[in-house]
Amino acid sequence: MSGRILQAHAGIGDTVEGEALVAADNFSARYDLDRIAGVFSRPSHKLYGRSYVGKVLVLNAAKGGVATAWMLNEMAARGMAPLALVLNFANPIMAQGAAFGGVPLIDRFADGDVTALIRDGQRVRVEPAAGRVVLLD
Amino acid sequence: MTKLNDYEEGLLRGAEGPAKQRAMQQLLAVAEFFDAADFVEVSQVHLMADGEAVGEAGVEYLEQLAALPPEQRRLKVPTVTDPRGADFKAYRRIRHDERFVEQERRAAQAMRALGILMTDTCINYQTIMPPTLGEHLAFGDTGSSIYANSVLGARTNFEGGPSAIAAALTGRVPRYGFHLDSVRRATTRFVVEEAPADLAEWGALGGLVGRRMRSYFEVPVIEGIEATPGSDALKHFGAALASYGSTALFHMVGVTPEAPSLSSVFDGSPPEPAERFTRRDLMEFMGQYGAGEDSLHVVVFAAPQLSLIELDALAGLLRGQRVHPDVTLIATTSPEIKSAADRMGLTAVVEGSGAILLEGVCFYQMHAREIGEANGWRRLMTNSAKLTNIIGGYGYEPVLASMQACVRSAVAGRVVR
């Protein structure tokens, strides 16, 4: 599937390239992460125990509280942020956090569930301005 | 393309300095992300900026803002704060690390310098200035947002801290989401067979509905609530729904202002109910947490902060009782309500039992992981479904039960259902 393009709504932030960390679960920085250790810390989350630092996080929907709006910036300042966020459905908090923290964000994919379209560990290029994700291997 | 008027164009060009320029840039990025046609003026801002969420980078941002010349940082609309990350008067009682408290002091000092009103409460809609029908807001706590939208008919999206500050600096938010009539229509219908009996059950119902929500823009309508719930019941319902669902608006037929009837929230004929919730569903929801062992370390009443009426109920249950020496009981409320509770003798009753009444904070916003480790807390009992949802990520094992059962357990020193 190398070179396949997934079309989405235009996103926020710069183009980045990296390895995908994928699950069909939802996402909240406050509820799901140990932001000091850089791992998922909510026991019921499918990515529990896995490191998200420098990864393109591919998850279903933004959930939970408002703290994520601050936390992406704080995580980026410590070099402990995900490389990009790729979601089926972002919410205002994710968008605000991405805009404030400079973390690339993209959502609303034309071909359906993005967590089924990208493989865990796959290399991808996220192009928010163009509203697309390119699968690289 | 989002349309800007002359004032907004000016901000974007830097007419009022770099901070307001950056604020307008952030607002515009979000506006374009959600295809907003233009911006809307807001009348109040509710700012979530506790030290844990803000972090060192956020504190530095606040300090930089506060250091700007007054004309470059003057707020355009009244701005009140959500709970702080530390109770400066009482933090030693829960072994809250001095480093975090110091960071919190710096954040609070910067916010005061900015002219932000330090109300330190998530129940501003009960205690400070309840919004009015149709009022456009920038509210930054999921609980205050869902209550203002749903129960009061005001209009806000979730405006997280940086965005709420941008709204305070500019007086604007992008016009999308729940500022629009079309987005406020119901999308998903739920029927409740039997109304919840207490606040914990109202939270459980919120959790049940919230789990069914697939996106922020899904709006649930609840039918079957015959007796009008009080403010605290809708507060717990909304807080849990917002927490489990990332949901900012619900309608309740015959209860909330935009839902006098089922047909009034749908444009065509209403869809079939997505689910009917029975008493058994509520019990199952509550029972899923903390089954098995009965050990207990900490009992928490918070998330949302307690109203004066809830504090009165808690004092009634604790009067003449003694919290078990192996258990810590913590309740949190706003500074205004704490002061009222002091004056009315409720604080003396609550603290007389050995419980701790904190002000201006919420449990999960006080570095819950670190205070848990410092005190050896793991098994946590609460009547807040919202807290139950959040606190697992901080290394706790939550148990959800009524306020009565929580107090009985705190006194017994083990989980009593």
Give structural notes.
The complex is a heterodimer of chains A (137) and B (417). Chain A has a single domain, classed as 3-Layer(bba) Sandwich (Glucose Oxidase, domain 1), CATH 3.50.30.10. Chain A is an alpha/beta fold and 137 residues long. Chain A is globular and about 35 Å long. In chain A, a hairpin with a 4-residue loop joins strand 3 and strand 4. Chain A contains four helices and nine strands; from the N terminus they run ββαβββαβαβαββ. In chain A, the strands form two sheets. Chain A has a seven-stranded mixed beta sheet with strand order 1-9-8-2-5-6-7. In chain A, strands 3-4 form a two-stranded antiparallel ribbon. With 417 residues, chain B is an alpha/beta fold. Chain B has three domains: 6-179, Aconitase, domain 3, CATH 3.30.499.10; 185-286, no CATH class; 292-412, Aconitase, domain 3. Chain B contains 17 helices and 14 strands. Chain B has helices at residues 6-13, 18-33, 51-66, 70-73, 98-113, 124-127, 142-150, 161-170, 199-212, 231-245, 279-287, 308-318, 335-344, 346-352, 368-375, 385-391, 403-412, and strands at 39-41, 45-47, 79-81, 138-139, 172-174, 188-192, 220-223, 251-252, 275-277, 298-306, 328-333, 356-359, 379-382, 397-400. In chain B, strand 13 (379-382), helix 16 (385-391) and strand 14 (397-400) form a beta-alpha-beta unit. Chain B is globular. Chain B starts with 5 loop residues before the first helix and ends in a 5-residue tail after the last helix. At the A-B interface, helix 1, strand 3, helix 2 and helix 3 of A face helix 2, helix 3, helix 8 and helix 10 of B.
